[in-house]
Amino acid sequence: MTTKPMIECAMGRKTARHPVWFMRQAGRYLPEYRAVRAGVEFTELCKSPKLASEVTIQPLRRYDLDAAIIFSDILVPCMGMGQELTFDKGHGPRLSRPVRSKEDLAILRRPDAERELGYVGEAIGATKAMLTPTQTMIGFAGAPFTVASYMIEGAGSKEFTEVKRLLLTAPQVFRGLLDLIADTTIDYLLMQRRAGADILMLFDTWAGQLSCPDYVAHALPSTRRVAEAMRANSIPFIYYPGQGSDRMYELGSGDGSSTPLPVDVISVDWRTRLARAGAILKSVGMNVTLQGNLDPQMLLGSESLVRERTRAIIEEGNNAARAHIFNVGHGLLPHTPPESLTWVIDELRK
Amino acid sequence: MTTKPMIECAMGRKTARHPVWFMRQAGRYLPEYRAVRAGVEFTELCKSPKLASEVTIQPLRRYDLDAAIIFSDILVPCMGMGQELTFDKGHGPRLSRPVRSKEDLAILRRPDAERELGYVGEAIGATKAMLTPTQTMIGFAGAPFTVASYMIEGAGSKEFTEVKRLLLTAPQVFRGLLDLIADTTIDYLLMQRRAGADILMLFDTWAGQLSCPDYVAHALPSTRRVAEAMRANSIPFIYYPGQGSDRMYELGSGDGSSTPLPVDVISVDWRTRLARAGAILKSVGMNVTLQGNLDPQMLLGSESLVRERTRAIIEEGNNAARAHIFNVGHGLLPHTPPESLTWVIDELRK
User: Fold this and answer.
1) Of A5, A156, A246, B197, which has fewest CB within 10 angstroms of its CB?
2) What is the CATH number of the domain that holds B75?
3) How many CB atoms within 10 Å of residue B233?
């Protein structure tokens, strides 16, 4: 049987080939992506299995990557729940009727993942048909707290004032929203699995916007519910807690649970040294694979600097955990020079 | 001799009275501040010793606080260095001619602190005359890296692309800028000390925007130079590394120094538990006082919640370090209900 290096590493078995992929590897830094995107709205691109699978596969045509991650957005399920999603030029995502009250919550619903979000599964199927047997197909969703942040603010935010206001002044509405998102997310991820995803990843980009006590009380329980559903279905699973290591201390039993968060891989933000992330996670009983964590802005540097930083991450990754998947510590930025990725991959293949 | 509880605690001596102040305690959440601000531009307010001392003292008229922090902005010295500073409504600070090249750096200069930034000293003198002998006068500056971030971007930033581009592609220009800011900052802080500041604080709000290796290489050395100048002059000194605990690991000998960063107090962001900050700092040889770290958004909560969170911070602070100064973990926000501060202070006085 042919094995996939990324899945092997995710499950804790080091492989001769050091697996690599890049968060947001299908994106605006690639001219071929911009060409597709020029003719179509962002949400239309997400909804078209043909176009979504095309942009998903684009980076694998250019680079010797170990995985494709389906092109989509963490807010796609919000459309299924009943909010309208738009992307204003230069302003990021907007969601209609931000959730600020019991009434706002009441009009949202748990979508039928297969029927209402099935285009993502179709795109996964179409992409997977183009992969080699050693390449991994990644599906993903946003973590309930991070998705809730957008659904409450109605847009990106700096201070998360409305999120925290709701959490403090209407905790039952907040909890109800997180439960709805968790249910939707589980359905959505299982649908992606059925469609062919080899591994699933949960992006908790805004985890770092809660103090540790609030993260434990208001974000971790719903993330745990999603992780447990994946574990119950034996699906390899990656969790990305954005912005700093503080929340990693909580993933063991910070929420009073008797077992650590059941995940196979923790994806590490570039703000934290891999060695420290590994040490923190071990200290809370989590023997996981680490993924990450080059600062994507380092790809602006010269070839020698990019190679040097890559070697440093490889060395740290090899020592920090049971296995390591090379990645950036945050999504690639639109100004990333495409050739810089070839230097990274070349160092990994040496 | 009358002692100041905040200074006693800063130097490691616990006091019967638990000292408290709030970052950005003079600000838009107070109607009396908005009344002064209505008639004057932000930079004019900073430059007027009469108005700056008036808004500085306003929160001490309302609340039983242990300290006044001079009303100013971390970008005020940039005007002395030769950039124009403006505040667009809703857009935050703008600095003219962002530093992107050797030529941009060459036209900047080290100002005469007394002559060109003396209005801050005058405001400190005028405020200090209004304080009781037990109240502490705080002066401050931005840390060189954080100030450099604005000087390079020309405004606030999300990704710090230009900062990192300069750091990577023109490291000598970047280093030259940090040296200039460090020199200016030392002059500026010593001037504030002569004017009557009892303690000085260095805000490194954007420390968390560098990976640990970059923080060690590009930010910590200039912060260390400022801290050493304060220590050489026996001035009590507070350092605030914004966004997470990761950089605290580096403050011991992360930069290869034989001695830890010489500071008396570390001010802790709300993202990190005080107990963990204390443990990390002790592990790198720093036996310091901690300041912080209530999430300012928690002040949106009910009286019982604010009191509960305050008690939790008091308890953690009492156990985490040699002494504790109560504060928020980030500046107060404009929508803070003014009465919430009275609940915090009441809990501290119980």
Assistant:
1) A156
2) 3.20.20.210
3) 13
Question: What is the domain extent for residue A253?
Answer: 5-349
- DSSP result, A260-297: ----SEEE--TTS-HHHHHHHHHHTT---EEEEEE-GG
User: How many other C-beta atoms lie within 10 A of the C-beta of residue A125?
Assistant: 18
The structural domain count of chain B equals 1
Mutation site for B-interface testing, chosen from A149, A249, A300, A308 by largest number of B Cβ within 10 Å: A300
* Angle, alpha carbons A180-A181-A183 (nearest 5°): 65
- Give me the total of CB pairs closer than 8 Å, taking one residue from chain A and one from chain B: 101
Q: Is B311 on the interface with A (CB under 8 A)?
A: no
Q: Residue A200 corresponds to which amino acid?
A: L
3-state SS, residue B211: coil
Q: Is the distance from CB of B310 to CB of B341 less than 8 angstroms?
A: no
Rounded distance between C-alpha atoms, residue B305 and residue B343, angstroms: 10
B318 touches chain A (CB under 8 A): no
Interhelix angle B161-169/B144-153, rounded to 10 degrees, is: 100
Contact check, Cβ <8 Å, A243/B271? yes
Here the tokens at position A343 are 């230097």
What ipTM was assigned to the predicted interfaces of this complex? Answer: 0.94
Is the pLDDT at B220 greater than 80, yes or no? yes
Rounded Cα distance, A22 and A145, in Å:
23
- Does B329 touch chain A if contact means CB atoms closer than 8 Å? yes
Q: Which of B211, B273, B298 sits opposite A212 (nearest CB)?
A: B273
Catalytic residue among B17, B62, B73, B225: B73
**CB contact, 8 Å: A301 with chain B?**
yes
Contact across the interface for B298 and A271, Cβ inside 8 Å: no
Q: Which residues of A touch B301 (CB under 8 A)?
A: 168-169
CB of B272 within 8 Å of a chain A CB? The answer is yes
Q: Nearest by CB to A333, from B159, B272, B329: name it.
A: B159
pLDDT digits (tens, 9 = 90+) for A78-113: 999 999 999 977 778 999 999 999 999 999 999 999
- Total number of residues shown for chain B: 350
Judge whether A348 and A312 are in contact, CB under 8 Å: no
CA A12 – CA A18 distance, rounded (Å): 13
Predicted structure pTM score? 0.96
pLDDT string in tens for chain A (350-residue length): 679 999 999 999 999 999 999 999 999 999 999 999 998 999 999 999 999 999 999 999 999 999 999 999 999 999 999 999 999 777 789 999 999 999 999 999 999 999 999 999 999 999 999 999 999 999 999 999 999 999 999 999 989 999 999 999 999 999 999 999 999 999 999 999 999 999 999 999 999 999 999 999 999 999 999 999 999 999 999 999 998 689 999 999 988 999 999 999 999 999 999 999 999 999 999 999 999 999 999 999 999 999 999 999 999 999 999 999 999 999 999 999 999 999 999 999 99
User: What span, in angstroms and rounded, lies between the C-alpha atoms of B63 and B245?
Assistant: 31
Q: Is B175 exposed, middle or buried (0-12, 13-18, 19+ CB in 10 A)?
A: middle
| Residue in the structure block whose two tokens are 């963490």 | A74
What angle in degrees, to the nearest 10, is found between the helix axes of A31-38 and A49-62? Answer: 160
Per residue in B258-267, pLDDT (tens digit) is: 999 999 999 9
